[in-house]
Amino acid sequence: MVAAYEEGPSVSSQKYASLRYTALRFGLLIASFAVVWVLCWARVVPLGIGSSNIFWMVLLALVISAPLSWVLLRKQRDAMAEQVAERVDRTKARITANAGQED
């Protein structure tokens, strides 16, 4: 019996890796902001000084979402890095080919 072969990530999953990572990162920021908003509304977290409430909440959400994205979005970040590296390699090859034609 022939075993099914395993492929690497499909082309379609690599095609939108940057967009997927960015969307997930933004979603994580929105979720963190929602948690911070609830904590501020419940007076668990200080509201800030004067009218700095929204700025404080966004800053706190950014601080919370950064380490979470580092851990939770590792696979998506690696796929995006691979996509960027492939683009850089193609661009370098094109530049080298164009430089060879000019000589």
From TrEMBL:
Database matches in InterPro entries: DUF4229
Domain of life: Bacteria
Key words, A-Z: Membrane, Transmembrane, Transmembrane helix
Ranges that cross the membrane: 23-42, 54-73
Official protein name in the record: DUF4229 domain-containing protein
